Amino acid sequence: MHSKGLVPLAWASAVTLTVAFALVFFYAPLDADQGFVQKIFYVHVPMAIVALGGFVAGGIMAIMHLRSGDRSWDMRSYVAIHLSIILGFGVLATGAIWARASWGHWWVWDEPVLVSFLVVVLLYCVYYPLRFSIEDPDRQARYSSVFAIAAGAFVPLNFIAVRLAEAYTHPRVLSQTGGSLPGEMRLTFLVALLGMTLLFVTLWKLELTAKNASMQLKKLRTRARVAA
Amino acid sequence: MIAAARAIARKDLRIEWRTKESVPAMTLFTITVYVLFHFGLDRDSLDGELASGVLWVTVLLAAVIGVSRLFAAEREQGGIEGLLLAPVDRTALFVAKAAVLFLYLCVVELVAVPAFALLLLGPGLGGAFPELLAILLLGNLGIAAVGALVSALAAETRARELIVPLLLLPLLVPLLISCAQATEPLLRQDAGPEDLARWLGLLTLYDVVFVLVSVAVFDFLLED
């Protein structure tokens, strides 16, 4: 049931990502102080936004699960969180590379977004041991949903706290990358963000389809065994 | 609901009073951690940010012990079925467990903070007492709300002892930031509150959000 629209979606994300990378390398201007290395921005920031969006979406799907009692929502929430954690590791890796290239250190504690992201990823990594140490499938779904909701509420709070703590010692202009991008950079960034979002949705649907298929297979096998 | 919560809390406190399991262990643990920090940092006295960091990290680590024991009596002696069969709201159970944890933390801090002042703190604690009290109470409230939720979440898992610290400590990072930042100016040589309103505001926001989230989702835990 999830496989509907998967092929066009996959094509759309492949095309958008190709266009985004073409724009990154041939259209967006070189950054005045950082030069070529600034181009990692077009991977790093969309990935971070999509990962955070995925965590929050996982929390919302968990709410849907608890409200409706329909376990397929828990499966959706699980896959969204799972993919967001993978993207989260990508964000940390690209962030470290960017920090190394532009500030000379692999890890910079006074970059609030990076630090909050580390805390968020650390928290969400506990989702796996929690989920897979509960055997009863109903209870597993319920407990995972409770975790997803609590952690989803935690994400914005954590960002506020880390931001305040850093602003306290290092006063900074809040929107450094946001509002003040020149036109070509902004267009490239938006296309990259769209591509990353499409990629996330495609992978999410693919994973759900695969999970459903293997579950159905398992069901059929048990039925065959019972019949035999 | 209030009556049910009070009954559950009274039962827990009576068990604690007779067995003396959690609170003495937590208190002893804080003193041990101070000794560890003394040798680990190789410092005889601390002040400012180092002092507030050591104080709060120690409190959080002690809280881990309390949280992992919070449902211990019910689990080991099968009382949980009784609680779940009783015709009371799950919210009452949450309120009772959070209140018990809050009281444990207050009692532990009653010993741990003076012991910290005696063993490690350079400047005296006298000047900033009301502010410190407010930070400790708000901090305890946040730890109690998150702790009760985490202990219920972990109660049904196989790897309980692993899940509690892994889940609790990252969830408490915003609380640690605001408590440590608010306490830091109070423990300097020239003590005095600074930016207190901002950190207490953040702490209150954290407490409100997690009390609400916990109350909202607690019904779905410990259901069967």
Listing every helix as H and every strand as E from the N terminus to the C terminus, the arrangement of chain A reads HHHHHHH
- Total strands of chain B: 0
Helix and strand composition category of chain A: mainly alpha
Give the total of domains of chain A. Answer: 1
Query: Helix-strand pattern of chain B, N to C?
Result: HHHHHHHHHH
* CATH class category name of chain A: Mainly Alpha
Point out poorly predicted stretches of chain B.
none
Rg over C-alpha atoms of chain B, rounded to the nearest angstrom: 18 Å
Describe the structure.
The complex is a heterodimer of chains A (228) and B (224). Chain A has helices spanning 6-26, 41-68, 71-103, 112-125, 127-132, 137-169, 183-227. By secondary structure, chain A is mainly alpha-helical. Chain A has a single domain (6-227), classed as Four Helix Bundle (Hemerythrin (Met), subunit A), CATH 1.20.120. Residues 170-178 of chain A have low confidence and may be disordered. In chain B, helix 3 (48-68) runs antiparallel to helix 8 and helix 9 (173-183) runs antiparallel to helix 10 (196-218). Chain B is globular, with a radius of gyration of 18 Å. The mean pLDDT of chain B is 86. Chain B has one domain. Chain B is an all-alpha fold.
